[in-house]
# Entry
Amino acid sequence: MKPYTRKASVLWLGTRQRGKGAISTPSAVLKKVPYASGSDIKRRGTSPPELIAAAHAGSFSMTLANELGAAGYRPSQIDTTATVTMEDIAVGWTLTQIHLDVIATVPKVAQCDFVDAALRAKANCPISRSLNANISMRATLTQRDATARLLPQQDWSAAAPGIFRKKGLKRNGAKN
# Structure
């Protein structure tokens, strides 16, 4: 596979403590999204720690799917939450710890094979390898029916009407 690059840009106004900005990506997934200091929870928008957590959760999930696939398994669902800890240490605010909480549904996988794949994914994940932080993980294997929850506990219909709805179905599942 060829090397590739990705870009993001930020316009920042003001100081770190009182400043604000907007982040954009060429894909337009992020387009002038409000951006502020990670400790500023009063403002709407995102922050560097939140973006790192999102990137890590996504990258880890794809890496775990790849590791399970290489071992001969097909995961039905991988739900990863990354929690980033920022600490104000002598050199300044530092990302010191990330905890990955993983719940996966993988048909016919033995618990030991799942744990092995999860540990390999943690070690091989590109985001894990790029961070200088303590990374902990809790990986849980479920045998429940894997009815995919693409975006757990979110109502995205207001943000992007029709995108996450199956054509011909109303929100309650009734036919149009």
